[in-house]
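Figure 3 (text version): C-alpha cells given as input.
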C-alpha cells in the first residue's frame, strides 16, 4: 500500500506542464530551454515545453537554420560543386540539393531536442 502511494507520487513528478500551451507531457516528452535573457537577469531560468511546442521553439529553429545554411552549402559544394560550376544542372539536383540542406537542419534540431529533454 505504501509502495503504491510512493510510486503514484513519483508518477505525478514525471509529468511536466508546458509553459506555452499548458498541456501535460510525460517523462521524456518535455523539454527545458534556457530563456533568451542574459545570465543574472531577474527573468533568467528555464522554460518547459511539450514536444509539439519544442519543435517550434524559435531560438532552436533559428540556430538549426543557420547550421543548415553553413553545413548544407559546404556539403553541396563538396558533393555537387563540379557539376554546379560546369553548369550541368540535371534533374537529380532538384532533390539532392534541398536534401543536402535538410540533413544538417534535422541533425542540429535532433541534437538540441536531445540535450533539452527532461
Ligand atoms: Zn506545449
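Below: residues designed for each position.
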Amino acid at each position: 500500500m505504501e509502495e503504491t502511494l510512493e510510486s503514484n507520487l513519483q508518477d505525478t513528478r514525471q509529468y511536466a506542464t508546458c509553459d506555452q500551451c499548458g498541456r501535460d507531457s510525460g517523462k521524456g516528452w518535455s523539454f527545458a530551454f534556457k530563456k533568451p535573457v542574459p545570465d543574472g537577469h531577474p527573468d533568467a531560468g528555464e522554460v518547459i515545453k511539450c514536444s509539439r511546442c519544442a519543435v517550434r521553439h524559435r531560438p532552436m529553429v533559428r540556430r538549426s537554420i543557420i547550421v543548415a545554411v553553413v553545413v548544407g552549402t559546404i556539403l553541396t559544394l563538396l558533393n555537387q560543386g563540379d557539376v554546379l560550376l560546369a553548369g550541368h544542372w540535371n534533374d537529380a539536383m532538384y532533390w539532392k540539393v534541398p536534401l543536402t540542406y535538410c540533413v544538417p537542419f534535422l541533425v542540429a534540431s535532433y541534437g538540441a531536442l536531445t540535450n533539452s529533454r527532461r
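The helical segments are 2-13, 51-54, 58-86, 93-116.
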